[in-house]
Input
Amino acid sequence: MGNSYAGQLKTTRFEEVLHNSIEASLQSSSLLPRPVFSQLYLEAEQQLSAPEGGSRVDNEEEEEEGEGGLEQNCPPNPYQMHPPPEGCCTTDGFCQAGKDLRLVSISSEPIDVPAGFLLVGAKSPSLPDHLLVCAVDKRFLPDDNGHNALLGFSGNCVGCGKKGFCYFTEFSNHINLKLTTQPKKQKHLKYYLVRNAQGALTKGPLICWKGSEFRSRQTPASTCSSSLFPPLESSGPLATFSSEPIPGTNPSVPMGAQQAGPASDHPSLTAAVGPAVFNGRDSTKHPQLVKNNLSAVPRPSALGILSNSGPPKKRHKGWSPESPSATDSGYPQGGGNRAKYESAGVSCMPQVGLVGPASVTLPVVASGEPVSVPDNLLKICKAKPVIFKGHGNFPYLCGNLNDVVVSPLLYTCYQNSQSISRAYEQYGASTIQPISEEMQLLLTVYYLVQLAADQVPLMEDLEQIFLRSWRESHLTEIRRYQQAPPQPCPPAPGAVAPVTSAQLPWLAGLAASSCNDSVHIIECTYSLAEGLSEMFRLLIEGKLAKTNYVVIICACRNAAIDSCIAVTGKYQARILSESLLTPAEYQKEVDYELVTGKVDSLGAFFSTLCPEGDIDILLDKFHQENQGHISSSLTASSVTKSASLDVGGVPVCTSYNLEPHCIRPFQLAVAQKLLSHVCSIADSSTQNLDLGSFEKVDFLICIPPSEVTYQQTLFHVWHSGVLLELGLEKEHMTKQRVEQYVLKLDAEAQTKFKSFLQNSFQNPHTLFVLIHDHAHWDLLSSTVHNLYAQSDPSVGLVDRLLNCREVKEAANIVTLHVTSFPYALQTQHTLISPYNEIHWPASYSNGVDLYPENKKYFGLSEFIESTLSGHSLPLLRYDSSFEAMVTALGKRFPRLHSAVIRTFVLVQHYAAAMMAVSGLSQMKNYTSVETLEITQNLINSPKQCPCGHGLMVLLRVPCSPLAAVAYERLAHVRARLALEEHFEIILGNPSSGISVGKHFVKQLKMWQKIEDAEWRPQTYLELEGLPCILIFSGMDPHGESLPRSLRYCDLRLINSSCLVRTALEQELGLAAYFVSNEAPLEKGARNDSLESDAEKLSSTDNEDEELVTDGSTSEKRSPVKRERSCSHDSASSSLSSKASSSALCGESSAQPGGPSQGERARSPQPCGPSEESRAPGERQRLRANRGPPSAISRHSPGLAPQPDCSLKTSQRSIQVSVTSLSSQLSSSGSSSSCTVPAASTLVLQAPQCSMTKACQQPPIVFLPKLVYDMVTSTDSSGLPKAASLLPSHSVMWASSFRPLLSKTMTSTEQSLYYRQWTVPRPSHMDYGNRAEGRVDSFHPRRLLLSGPPQIGKTGAYLQFLSILSRMLIRLTEVDVYDEEEININFREESDWHYVQLSDPWPDLELFKKLPFDYIIHDPKYEDASLICSHHQSIKSEDRGMSRKPEDLYVRRHTARMRLSKYAAYNTYHHCEQCHQYMGFHPRYQLYESTLHAFAFSYSMLGEEIQLHFIIPKSKEHHFVFSQPGGQLESMRLPLVTDKSHECIKSPTFTPTTGRHEHGLFNLYHAMDGASHLHVLVVKEYEMAIYKKYWPNHIMLVLPSIFNSAGVGAAHFLIKELSYHNLELERNRQEELGIRPQDIWPFIVISDDSCVMWNVVDVDGGGERSSREFSWSERNVSLKHIMQHIEASPNITHYALIGMRKWSSKAGSQEVREPFSRCHVHDFVVLNVDLTQNVQYNQNRFTCDDVDFNLRVHSAGLLLCRFNRFSVMKKQIAVGGHRSFHITSKVADNPMAIVPAQYICAPDSKHTFLAAPAQLLLEKFLQHHSHRFFPLSLKNHGHPVLSVDCYLNLGSQISVCYVSSRPHSLNISCSDFLFSGLLLYLCDSFVGAGFLKKFHFLKGATLCVICQDRNSLRQTVVRLELEDEWQFRLRDEFQTANAKEDRPLFFLTGRHI
Output
C-alpha cells in the first residue's frame, strides 16, 4: 500500500477497513463502541503510544494484556530487549540475516512451508502499514473456535530459512519487531496469509486468539472492555470481574468469555443466537445454526472464523460475517456493536423518559426559514413521523402540523451526555472532555442501524452507549483520578484524532450503507430546513417506504453541526408518538376517537372479513336456529345439577373449602421488623417519638379510590381482629364502625381526614399510625392541584392530606407508606430516611429456608423463569397472530390510536372464539389460538365440576371507555349465543362496585353457604369459582386482589407505549400467586424441565426484591440459556390445533382454580392464602402416588388452600407445580419425564373441578409482544431489561452518567441506587423537599414498607399494629416485687397495740408505749438470720431451708403492674412535661453543670472527707455560695414551720451504682411536678456516665477510696454530710434570726428502684373488734405521701419514718394498725439531728439498714412505719448489689469460686480474690457460718449473741442483738443461754465486765473479727477471753485477700 504521508486519509484502505469494521461491529455482541476513529487518520507525529499510523488496536491490547495493565493514553513502559548481536541487520521489515520479510515484497515469491506449519502475518509497531510473513506451527495457533492453541511457540523465518525458534521473544528479536512491550504471540501474530486466485500471498482472516487466552487477561479492562463499567460504577459481581468484560446481554455466558479487541469482531454467541433467544424475531431462519451453537460452544464469545476473506455482501440475521481487516479498523466494534442491545431485546422499548409533563410536544427553538409540512402526509405515510431535535438550531415548521410530532427528548439526551464529565470535576480532572457532538451523532446512527424492524429506539440505551463510549475514551484519566489523589497538573491526554464535522456526513452515510436503507442520511448544505423539506418530499413520493429512520445533518457551519432525526417507520413512529402522550392525554385521545365515531371505520372493516357477511347477521341467524333447546339444556346442566347434588347425597365438589385464618411466618417477621424500626426511632436521641408517653394505638388506612380495594381492606381489618386487640371496638362491631378506620382517597376524604387529625390532637397519649397503602399512587404535588383544582378535586390529594403541616408536626402520628413499587418514593428529595425502609425479606438465605411456609410466592421473577427453563408451557406468552393483525390494521388506520385498534381486534377475537366454541366452527379462522384456548376453557370448565365451579379470565382494558365498549360487545355476543348462564361478564371499574347477575349471585351464595338474602359480592375475591370474564379497567390497578380461580391474565391491551418500571410491574403484579410448597407433583415434574429446587431457590429467592431475581436462573446451570425456539410464541406451539388445545389446555394446564374462600358465618373470606396443615398435604401425596386420581378424591376436604384475611391482597394459593401439564398427566407423583411427548402421556380422567386445578399452577399471562420482549430479555447486568427503565412517571434520571442496576442488588441497594440517581419531577410531591434548606430533610416519623404485589403486606401491617399495641401496653407496665411479708407468725404479741385505727398521724405518747418489733418482715431478707427477743418461742423447723445465692433473684415473685401517672421513670421515658426536668428540652442547651468540692472532717475516719457536687445551672438555687469566690457553702434547708403546698421539704438522696440507664431517677411525675431537691449519690468512676444520662440532676460524687465500697459507705456519707450541712444551715440562718431547732432536719434516703407509691383508704369502725373493717388501695404521688408525713405533729421526735413494701397479698392484718414500731427499709425519712450519734456502718455491703435500725432503736429513738403507705419496687436486672463480682486475682484462673473459698488460714498459699475483705466476710458468714457456730444451727432457742452489730449468719441461725453503749435499750438476756458469741470490730465500749453478764452453753463457740492479727491478740487480752474460752492455733483465719487489700482476721474458740 502506498507511502502516504501523515495526515492524509488513505481512502481505499480506509473504506475497506471502516466497512468491514462496521459490519463486524454490527454483529458483535459488545455494548461498547470504540470511542474514537483514531486509526483512520495517519497523524504520525502524535503517535506516542501507537506508532502504527494511528491504529490504536495494538496498543489497546498491550494495555490490556501487558503486565502493568497500561492504559491507552499513557506511553507504555519500554520493554528491555536484549541488544541485537554485533553486525546483524536491524532494519525494520528485515530479519537479522538481512532478508526481506514484508508481505508486499515477497507475496509472489515461492515460500517453503513445512508440513503442519501455516503462514501468518505479524505486525511491527514500527511498520504500521506492513505485515511481516512468518511460518508458525499451527498447533500453537487457535482453532476455528478460538480455542485449543498450545502454550508456547514454534516458528521458522521465511527470509533466511532459520528454523526451530522455540520462544516468541527470540523470534520477535530475529525478525526485528523492536517491541516496546513484552513480546506475545497473541498480540503480534495477527492474520492468516492465503493465496488469491492469482497465486499471490494476501492478508487473510484475523487469527482468533481471545477465546483461549483469556486466562492471561488479568489486568484492568481498558478500552476494549465491552460492557464493563470501570470499578467506580461496578457494584456487586461486576466489580469482582472487572478485569474481564462481561457479555452484557447474556447472563449465561461464562464471565471469562471475552469480547474485547479484535476477537470481539468474531461472532459471539449473542450474535449468532441473540435474535432467536431474545427478540422473539424470526428465529426459525437458522434453527440448525442456533442448535449447533448452543450445543457445541462452551465458550460462546468466539464462534470461530467463518473464513470469508472479502467484505460481506449482505447483513445476515443470525450470523455475523468475519471482517478480514478488522484489526486495521480503529472502530472494530463501532457504534454498531449494539448487537448486544438488540439481542437484549430491549431496544424494542419505547422511550421511557418520554412521559410526564416534561415530554409534551413543546414548541422547539427554531431558526431560519420555515418548513412546510405537506397536507396529506399522514394519509400517504400511514403514520405521523416523529422528529427528534438533535444538535444546533431547528427550523420552524408550518402547514399541516397535526401530522408530525416534534420532541426535544433526543436533544435532552445529548445535553445530558455532554455534562457527563462534571462528575469528575471534583478530581480536578480538567482535561476530561465530554463526548463530541459529531461522535454523539455517529453513535446514534450506529445505534439506529442495528435496530431490528420490530424494535423501537430507547433513549436510555443511547445514554448508556454515550456513557460507555465516553468512558472508554477517558478510561485512563478516570482510573487515575479514582486511584490517586488529585494532581495539580494532570498529564496531557494521548493523541486521539477527533471526527470532524466535514467527515461526519460521509462517515454516517458509510455506517448506514449496510442496513438495507432502514436508516437514510440526508446531508444539507445550509440549514436543516432543506433536509426536512427533502425528507417530506421523499415521504410523499413514497421513496422512504423501507426507511425507519431519517438522519438529517447540516455540517456547513464553521464549528458546530445541526442535526435532527425523524422516525418514519410506521411501527416505530406510531409507538413513539403515542408514548409521548401523558396518561391523561392518552385517555383524552381515545375518548375523542370513540365520541367522534372515528372507530366506525374499524367496525366496518371487521364486518367485511367474515365469510358470510356481518358477524352480527351470523349471530342473529344462530340465535334463531338454536333459541329453544340450547339454553334450557345448558342451564339445566349448570344450575339444577349443582342445586340437586346436596339433596340427593351425591358427593359435592370438595375443592371449595374453608381454611382457618392465621398469620404467616413472613408476615410476622415483617411486622416485627416494622416494630423494631419504630423502636429505633424512639430510642434515638432525637426525641422524635416518645413511645413511653403513649397508652394505646389508633390507625387510619388510606387507600386509592377503588371501591373493590376499599371493601377488601375493610374485610381484612374486620377479620384480622386488630380493632378488638387495640381496644378500639367492642365485641359486636358493625361494618359502619370498621369504615371509620379505612379512608378512600376520593372527594369526600378530606372531612374524614380532618376528624382523624382532630382526634390525634385531642389524644396526645394515643399513637396514631397513618398507613398509606398503595403509596406509589397519586404522588402529585398539591401545587399542581392548585392549577387543576376545578377539573379534578382529587388531584394531589395524598400530598394535601398526608404531607400537611399537622401530620408532619404531630408527635403522635407515625406515617407508614406501603407499596409494591417504592421507586418514586426513593428519590434524592424523599422524605423517608433509608434507615426507615423495611423490605420484604428473602425467603432463602444461602440455601437456608428462613421462614418455612407451605406456600411459595410466585411473582414476576418466577413468571420470567417459566419462559426460560424449557418449560413445556411458559406462563408468560404473547400472541403473534394478534400482534400481526394489530400491525396490519395500524397501517390501514393511521389516525386511530393503537389502544383502540388493539381493543377492537381483541374483542373481535373473543367474539369469534365464543362463536367457534358454540358450534360456528368456521369462525375459528377469525381468532387466534390463544384466545380460542381461553374461551374454550372458560366455557367448558363449569361442566367438569359437579357444582359448576369455573375459571376467571381477567381482561385488562386500562382505558375505561374502551372497557365499556368491550363489555357491551362481549355481552351482546354472549346473549346471542345463549351463553348468559354459562359465564358472567363483569365490568370492573375502580369507581364503582361489582355488579353480578342474580343467577350467579345465587350460585356464589350456595357455594359459600351464605344465608343473607341481601348479600352481594363486593370484592373480586368473593367471585371465587365463578366462571367469568372480568374486564378490569382503570389506568392503574389499585391493589385489588384476584381469586384463586383466576386462570388467564390477558394483558394484551396494556398501554405498551409508555412503559416505566412501576407501570409494568404493576400490571404483571395482577397475576402474582401463591403456590403450595407441599405439592407432591412439583419436584418430580420439574426435575427434568427446571433445575432442582434447591438450586432454583438459591438462584431466585436470595433477593429481597422479586424483580431483581429475573428469571435467568439457568445461568447457574449451563453456560447457554436453553432456548425454546417457539414456545414463547404460543401460536406456533404444539397447542395450535384446536384438538390439542382443547384436550391439553382445557383438561390439564389451563383449568382455573375454583372457589376457595368459603364462608365464615355469612361473609366470605377472600383474604389470601394461609397455611394448610401438613397432614392433608401428606394425604394428597399418598393419593398422588396411587395413580391417576379421580375428580372427587383428588382433594381431601380441607385441602384446598383458602384465602386468609391477614393478607393484604389475598393471594390465590396454588398447590401443585408450574409444570402442571406434565405433572397432572403423569400417573405417579414422584417423577414425570418431560421428554415423553405430552400427548402420549395423556391419561383420561374423570372430569375435575377447575378449583382443583387452580391450586396447581399460577395463571397464564398474555402480554403485548413489545412488553414480552422487554420483560424476558436481560441487559448487561443480568436483570430483566424492564428493571433499567425509568422507575416511575413522576421522577427523572438525575444524570445519564449512572451505572445500570445490578442483578445482585438487594432491595436496600436498589433503594440507595434510586435515591442517588433519580430526582422528582416538578409535579412530584417531594419536589420542594430539599428547598427547605435542611440537609436532614427526612421526616423522622415516616416509614416505607415495600414487598412484591399480593404477598401479604396488609396482613403484615395489621399484625404490626397488634404487636405495637402490645408493646406499648408492655412499656406502660413494670414488674414489681410482689411478696408476702415474712415471719408473720413470730410477730410480737403484746398487750400494746396502736388502737386508734383512724388516726392520720401517730400520737407520740401512744406510740412511745408500743414495743419495738425486732423481727425482720421484709421479704428480701428471707435468707437473713432471725433476730430474737425474749417474747418468741420459735421452733427450729419453722424456718425454711436457705436457698442458693443465685436463686435469690430468679425466684423472687413479681407482678406486672400498669404504670400510673405518678410513677418514677428511668432514662427511656421522654415526654413533653418532663423534658425540661430531664434537661433534654430542644429549646434549651444541654444543661451546663459546675463541679464543687465540699470538705468536712469526721473524727471516726480520722481524716477530712472531700466530696464533690455536680450542680446544673438550673439547680443552683438550692445551694448557698460564698459571694466573692462562688465557693459552695451549704445546701439550703427549709424550716419546720414552712407550710408550702408546692414543695417537698426533705432533700432526697438516692445512692446508685451500675444503673445509669435503668435507675428510676426521674421523679417529676412521682412528685406531681412539685419542687423538690433530688441528689444522686454516685461513685467517682461512674460520674461521667451518670452525668451523660442525667444532665439536669445534682450528683454527689463519693471519694475515690469508696469506688469498691458497698451501700453502707454511701448511706454513711449521706447521713454525715446531711448532719454537717444541718449545722452549717443552722449557723447561717441563726444570723437571720432563726432558731436552730426550726431548721428542717429530715432527709429521704431512697432506693433507685422505687417506682410507685400507694395509700390504703380504710373504711370501718374505730373499734378493734369491728367486723366492718374494709379497705382499698390506690396509687398516689410521692408528693402526697411526703407532704402527709412532713405534716405529722411532733415529727421531729421521730428518728426514722418508713412505709410498708407493697404486696398484692397484704391482708387487713397488715393495714389494720396504721403505725408500727419496727424495721424500715428501701425508702426512709431520716432525722439527721436525732441520729447524730448513730452511724451507718460504712464497711457494709448487705443488711446495713437492719444493722442501722437496731442501733437507732437501742439508742432509745423512735422508728415509725406508716402501714397505710406502701412503696412498689421495680425488678431491675442490672446494677445494684449485682455489680459486685468476686473473682480470682490470678488472671488466668477460670475456676468458679464458691463461698467456702472466701476465707483461708493466714500465710497459706490460697488463691487470693479480687474483692473487698468486708464483702468476703459477709458472704462467707451468710453461707458458711455453721462452721463457726455449729451449736447454733437450727437452734433458735439458743441464738448467737451479736454485740453492737447485726451480721447475717444465714437463715438457719438466729442472733440476739445487744448494744454495749451505756443507757442503750436492750432486751433482757437473763433467761437466754447463747450458743455463740460474735464480736465484730468491737470498740472500747465492749469490756470484759460487759461480756460476763451473758450465759453460754457448754461448747458454745466464739468468733472475734478484727482488722489485723495484732488487734486480734489485743482484743483477746483486753476482754480477758481466755478465762472462759479456749483457743487453738489452727482456729485463726483471714479473708482470702492479699496483704495490700487489708484482709480481715478471725479467731474462733470454744466455751469452756
User: Anything to note?
Assistant: The longest helix spans residues 1607-1630. The CA atoms of residues 244 and 256 lie 6 Å apart. The chain has a mean pLDDT of 77.
